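Page 37, continued from 36.
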């Protein structure tokens, strides 16, 4: 499965199907994405392979105090993945997949911090990811 950033400088492949696909409504994901949630396709970091370009990254702290690396395209700014090395989870931006039908969210993360104007999908079950 493959994906790319908005300007196509970054291309990548995902080598495994995610068992944890969800929408993350945490405040950090909202700020970074300018959206109500982040479309999270969680895999282990070694299941992500860059095929073109170089990702830039910075480290921030999650609300739970964990170091979270945010990897993005230095040219167009699209965030490609959010990684927590403490728990070996990489959350790939499912909205950057070449074929968006691969994303089938089953979970919500931090739905309690969803914006008041946003309805959380009732069919998704709450699950707190270990990385955030
Ligand atoms: Zn780009
Ligand atoms: Zn989040």
């Amino acid at each position: 499965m493959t994906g790319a950033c908005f300007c196509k400088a970054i291309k990548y492949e995902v080598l495994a199907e995610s068992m944890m696909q969800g929408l993350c409504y945490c405040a950090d994901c909202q700020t970074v994405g300018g959206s109500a949630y982040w479309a999270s396709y969680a895999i282990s970091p070694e299941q992500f392979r860059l095929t073109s370009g170089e990702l830039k990254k910075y480290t921030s702290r999650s609300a739970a105090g964990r170091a979270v690396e945010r990897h993005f395209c230095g040219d167009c700014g699209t965030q490609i993945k959010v990684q927590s090395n403490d728990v070996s989870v990489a959350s790939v931006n499912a909205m950057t997949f070449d074929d968006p039908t691969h994303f089938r969210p089953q979970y919500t993360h931090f739905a309690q911090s969803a914006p008041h104007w946003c309805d959380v999908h009732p069919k998704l079950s709450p699950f707190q990811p270990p990385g955030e």
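Residues 5-7, 9-10, 73, 75-76, 78 surround zinc ion (ligand 1) (CB under 6 Å). Flag for discussion at group meeting. The CA atoms of residues 8 and 52 lie 9 Å apart.
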